[in-house]
Write a structure and sequence with these properties.
Rossmann fold, 6-stranded mixed beta sheet, binds adenosine-5'-diphosphate, Alpha-Beta Plaits, binds magnesium ion, 4-stranded antiparallel beta sheet, elongated, 32% helix, alpha/beta, 308 residues
Length: 308
């Protein structure tokens, strides 16, 4: 069996301030998957990435990169990783070409201009190769960061909040590039607090809150397991209270009394929709319009984080 790209066992990080930023994290990430780490601000996402990449000292636990201990075999482990940090840190006066080439050299890789050219072309940066980084737009700077992270041909790419401050167009093109990398075998780990990004990109999702991983699940399973549907009934006339025969449905009556919402599990055969409609008719409640809504990953996320 191939080793996981990342294996984290019983990882704890307590900052000097006493804050427990990571609390007993256990996580395996398979080679070639896109894993999205979701969590509100301050949840511990950057701390977890920094710990795995060996940027901060951990308090306890084991981290292995493709089977290599991240401290005992630091150089091998770190060489397998490309990191696009949350904060854009580049040398403003350096050119795109130089900064990306230099980054490759830092990892002890021999020069390979053809490879650097390929990355820059892939990221639509080729015509900017001789520009100073300070002259580039924010979106281009972010792509330079990605180019730098890819310069030493890492097997694993970390992207910490890749969409922060990036407009919709660029975000979409970045997602395409990330998928292409994955298709070429790179393992991708991204953190985000844009739920839409995880919903769009991830094979698997981890949700972190207050330093604890509260859930790890295949995205599809997660959506199926926790995804609920809502039946929204717009009524002809105002209802002041829900009639007794309908009490069992946990209906939500809107403030103006003209809308009833029924939440049900669409995966269940007896989801209650047909009976509810019959009961409504018997109670003399007439519907003007009927709509359904599938709960999104966002709804699921808000519920989970709210509970923990
Ligand atoms: N160097 C540090 N020293 C002390 N506390 C820190 C440090 N860096 C981050 N924190 C705290 O650790 C928690 C997790 O932060 P972080 O990992 O940056 O969260 P996220 O990336 O999910 O927004 C936050 O409460 C943050 O204030
Ligand atoms: Mg962060």
């Amino acid at each position: 069996m191939t080793k996981p790209a990342i294996s984290v066992q019983s990882l704890t990080k307590t900052y000097d301030s006493g804050l427990i930023a990571l609390d007993d994290i256990n996580l395996d990430i398979a080679q070639g998957e896109i894993f999205a780490l979701l969590g509100p601000n301050g949840a511990g996402k950057t701390t977890l990435i920094s710990a795995i990449c060996g940027i901060i000292r951990v308090s306890d636990g084991i981290i292995e990169i493709c089977g290599h201990d991240h401290t005992k075999e630091y150089r091998i482990a770190r060489g397998k990783i490309g990191l696009v940090p949350q904060e854009l840190t580049t040398d403003a006066f350096e050119t795109v070409w130089n900064t990306v080439s230099f980054s490759r050299g830092l990892f002890g890789k021999p020069k390979n201009p053809a490879f650097i050219e390929e990355i820059l072309k892939d990221l639509s940066l080729w015509d900017k190769k001789d520009e100073q980084i300070r002259k580039l737009s924010g979106g281009m700077k972010r792509r330079v960061m990605i180019a730098k992270a890819l310069s030493h041909e890492p097997e694993i790419l970390f992207l910490d909040e890749p969409s922060a401050g990036v407009d919709v167009e660029l975000r979409k093109s970045m997602w395409r590039q990330i998928r292409r990398l994955r298709d070429n075998g790179t393992t991708i780990i991204l953190t985000t607090h844009y739920i839409e990004e995880a919903e769009e990109m991830a094979d698997r999702i981890g949700i972190i809150n207050k330093g604890k991983l509260i859930l790890i699940e295949e995205k599809k399973t997660l959506m199926k397991k926790l995804g609920k549907k809502e039946l929204i009934l717009e009524l002809y006339s105002k209802v002041t209270e829900i009639p007794t025969p309908l009490a069992d449905y946990n209906l939500l009556l809107s403030e103006n009394g003209k809308r009833l919402t029924f939440t049900y599990d669409p995966s269940k055969k007896n989801n209650g929709v047909a009976e509810l409609l019959d009961h409504l008719k018997d109670s003399g409640i007439k519907c003007k319009d009927i709509d359904t809504r599938q709960s999104s990953l966002e709804d699921i996320f808000v519920t989970l984080v709210g509970q923990s």
